[in-house]
Amino acid sequence: MKFLGIVLCGALLAIHAKSAQAVCGYESCHATKSNMVNIHLVPHSHDDVGWLKTVDQYYYGHKNNIQHAGVQYIIDTVISELIKDPARRFIQVETSFFAKWWDEQSETVRAIVKKLVNEGRLQFTNGAWSMNDEAAVNYQSVIDQFTVGLKFLDDTFGVCGRPRVGWQIDPFGHSREQASLYAQMGYDGEFFSRMDHNDKGRRMNDLALEMVWDASESLGDVKLFTGLLYTFYWDTPGFCFDVHCNDDPIIDGDSYDNNVKSRVDGFIAYAAQVAEKFRTNHIMIPMGGDFQYEDAEVNFKNMDKLIKYVNERQASGSKYNIFYSTPGCYLNSVHKSVQSYPNKTLDFFPYGSDTNSFWTGYYTSRPTQKRFEREGNHILQVAKQLSAFAELSSPQQKEDLEYLRQIMGVMQHHDAITGTEKQAVSDDYDRLLYDAIVGGVNTARDALRKLTNLPNGEFESCLQLNISECAFTKDSADNVVVTLYNPLAHTTSQYVRVPVKNEIYQVTDEKGRVVASELVPVPWQVLALEFRNNDTQHELVFKASVNKIASYYINKVDKQQNTTKVLSKKPANAEEHSLKDKAETYDGEETVVQTSLIKLVIDNKTGLLKRVEMNGVSENIDQSYGIYRTYDSGAYVFRQYNQGDFVIQEDGVEFTFYDGALVKEVHQQFNEFISQVIRIYEDKNFVEFEWLVGPIPVEEDFGTEVVTVFSSEISSSGVFYTDSNGREMIRREKDKREDFDPELAKQPTSGNYYPITSRIALQDSNKRIALLNDRAQGGSSMKDGQLELMLHRRLVRDDGYGVGEALNELKYGQPMVARGKVYLILNDADESTSVEREAEKEFHLPLWKFFSQNSGSSSSAAKSVPSFEDFPQSVHLLTLEPFNDDEVLLRVENFKDHIEGNVVSFNIRPIFDYLNGLEIRETTLDGNLPLSDLKRFKFHAEGSGPVATEAEYYTSAHKPLSANETQDASEFAVTLYPMQIRTFIIKIQ
Question: Which of 128, 520, 577, 648 is least surrounded by CB atoms within 10 angstroms?
Answer without folding.
Answer: 648
